[in-house]
Design brief:
Residues 345-395 form the PAC domain. Its main location: membrane. The chain has 636 residues and is of the alpha/beta class. It contains 22 helices and 22 strands. Strand 2, helix 1 (16-27) and strand 3 (32-38) form a beta-alpha-beta unit.
């Protein structure tokens, strides 16, 4: 049916690739509407009855029925529907049977997409279409009295009837009608376009006028035969240029004998063949075309270089000569002319050169359907260097993993040694220096009680305050060396104590955000704290900030620490090399040695952002248990 001037079309083909390609082709045309798909004759009839299309384009050879019966059923049940037959084969009997039951056209697979669309549109107008290669073969009944109920004189009196002229006019190849004197009486539009002449200019010319001089004898021999086999010659255009062409001719019986000549321009075909050959020859890999019996049909120059054989020596030989004792032939024979489209795949095999040396090969196996049957394209690549590089890469990865383990072990040792040394110093301060100062403070207080002079008592009070300040600073030093929160596995608590100390000393307010759900190993926690401590020391000394925001985040199996201040900022290129800013380099080095990264962003007037990330995996042999310290766990 026709809706809003669009032509409804049903596609019936059992080959999924062809079916989908036809569906996409119809969808791409603004005047066509795809309303149904079918994969066999039974479904084709049902789809026509259900959807009432204007045109059914149908593969002739499908399961569950036969094409003539399907055409009859569609014409009987959907009288307005027109059927265009499509087939990979063009046997004369099949074509004539389809036309006899009412098909509105017959195309062979491989017909250009534009001609398929034109045939559908013509069928919707009740006009006939046929592929060029079928036209010559099916015109034979026109000349045989026993094969037809009409003669050429029924079609041709003083002129050809309009219906026959229309058929020839829309043929996708050149068609000439040659009169009894060898003069051209009719040339279709394809011929006029091909040779660059108008109808008037072609009339009364001879066929030999359309070919180079070397082909004139051959062209005359086409006229007068019943039907000649196609001949490869060259056509000559009006401007004198030549083009490759295929000529075939025949004899039409009538009151006066006339000849018909069919001309196909092979320029595009030759160009396509040339491009295909160039593609094969320019491939960096060896390429072979093999038939289903495993015999080599073609090979490119890279095959000669890879295997050491001349290609002439390879043609006709079994592919096992190049890829011996392997399941390749079995794989090739799995592909037959079944309805399912075969799918290519790759295999790793062993190739053998002409000198009997072998090499590892990656072989891509792809199907290639041709008119002669199913062939196989083999693409062969020597992967010796690839395997060697893979081996080197694997060894490099093993060494890298070993190096990473060594680096982690070194990190563990360094962190452990640093923290142990800090613990020892803290213990010494606690057990020695603080005790001595405490004792001195006690004795000083005893001495003060014995003094009666107010001036002497004031001196003693000031001395006592100095000793208390010393004790306070020593306790803070112990905290800096070994925060008690860090000892108990609380990273956020240790950072909060550090931030509180900075707030007390400088007035910088802080916000600590702890969203770290994982519990870092002791070495990693110590490294995170020391790195953050270095960044916060820079904030305290150099930033002139009012606030600082610290975040602990879990990210990619690691810990991301972000420290953002609202200070005066700086130019990293100018400042980081100055004395007093070594801490920024230490932050980056600590993060990198832990297997992480560090990013510092700042600019004058915009504050500074320090981000660093370290993985949370425990380094091998890691242990930072306080019991491991020979000095014990000092408590300030």
């Amino acid at each position: 049916m026709m809706g809003d001037n669009r032509i409804d079309v049903v596609v019936a083909d059992d080959d999924p690739a062809v079916r989908e390609a036809l569906a996409d082709l119809i969808d791409s045309h603004p005047d066509l509407e795809l309303v149904g798909l079918a994969i066999n004759h039974e479904q084709a009839v049902r789809a026509a009855v259900d959807h009432h299309p204007r045109v059914v384009i149908m593969d002739v050879h499908m399961p569950r029925g036969d094409a003539p019966s399907s055409v009859r059923a569609i014409r009987d049940q959907v009288p307005d529907a027109r059927v265009v037959a499509l087939s990979a084969h063009g046997e004369r009997e099949t074509v004539l049977n389809m036309l006899a039951v009412g098909a509105s056209g017959y195309l062979v697979k491989g017909t250009p997409a534009e001609e398929i669309l034109e045939a559908i549109i013509r069928a919707a107008r009740d006009q006939f279409s046929m592929s060029a290669e079928l036209l010559a073969d099916c015109a034979e009944p026109l000349r045989r009295a026993e094969r037809a109920s009409w003669r050429f004189e029924d079609l041709v009196g003083n002129r050809l009837e309009d219906s026959f002229l229309e058929l020839l006019g829309h043929a996708p190849c050149g068609v000439l009608i040659v009169g009894p004197r060898g003069r051209i009486e009719y040339a279709n539009a394809h011929t006029r376009h091909m040779f660059g002449y108008s109808s008037a200019e072609l009339r009364d010319k001879r066929l030999r006028d359309l070919v180079p001089e070397r082909y004139r004898t051959a062209s005359e021999q086409l006229i007068g035969r019943v039907f000649s086999s196609p001949s490869a010659m060259s056509g000559r255009r009006r401007d004198g240029t030549e083009f490759p062409a295929q000529f075939s001719g025949g004899h039409l019986q009538g009151r006066q004998p006339r000849g018909v000549v069919f001309i196909a321009d092979l320029s595009q075909l030759r160009a396509a063949e040339s491009r295909f050959r160039q593609l094969i020859e320019s491939s960096p890999d060896a390429m072979l075309i093999v038939d289903t019996s495993g015999r080599i049909q073609a090979a490119n120059n890279r095959t000669e270089a890879l295997f050491g054989y001349d290609r002439d020596h390879l043609i006709g030989r079994a592919v096992e000569a190049l890829l011996p004792d392997q399941p390749l032939t079995v794989s090739l024979r799995e592909w037959d002319d079944s309805l399912e489209e075969p799918v290519g795949h790759s295999m790793e095999l062993v190739g053998r050169r002409s000198d009997a040396k072998q090499f590892p090969a990656d072989v891509s196996i792809s199907p290639l359907r041709t008119e002669e049957g199913l062939l196989t394209v083999l693409t062969v690549r020597d992967i010796t260097e690839v395997q060697r590089a893979q081996f080197v890469l694997e060894r490099s990865l093993e060494l890298l993993e070993g190096t990473d383990r060594d680096r982690q072990a070194l990190l563990s040792h360094l962190v452990h040694a640093q923290e142990a040394e800090r613990g020892r110093i803290a213990a010494d301060i606690h057990d020695d220096t603080i005790q001595v100062i405490t004792a001195a403070s006690l004795r000083l207080q005893q001495l003060r009680r014995r003094l009666r002079d107010p001036d002497e008592q004031r001196v003693m009070d000031k001395l006592d305050e100095t000793l208390k300040l010393s004790l306070s600073r020593l306790r803070q030093l112990i905290f800096d060396l070994r925060p008690s929160s860090l000892e108990h596995g609380c990273l956020a608590g240790a950072l909060r104590g550090l931030l509180e100390q900075i707030r007390t000393e400088t007035g910088i307010t802080y916000r600590l955000e702890d969203r770290l759900t994982a519990h870092p190993p002791a070495e990693t926690m110590a490294l995170i704290y020391r790195t953050a401590q270095e960044a916060l020391v820079n904030v305290r000394k150099h930033a002139h900030a009012k606030t600082v925001h610290v975040q602990l985040l879990g990210l990619d199996d690691g810990c991301l620490v972000r420290i953002v201040d609202d200070g005066e900022g700086y130019n990293p290129l100018e400042v980081e090399s100055r004395p007093g800013h070594l801490g920024l380099s230490l932050i980056q080095e600590r993060a990198q040695i832990a297997g992480g990264w560090c990013r510092i962003e700042s600019e004058p007037g915009s504050g500074t952002t320090v981000e660093f990330w370290v993985p949370l995996g425990a380094p091998p042999g890691a242990s930072l248990d306080p019991a491991d310290s020979p000095e014990g766990d000092p408590q300030p």
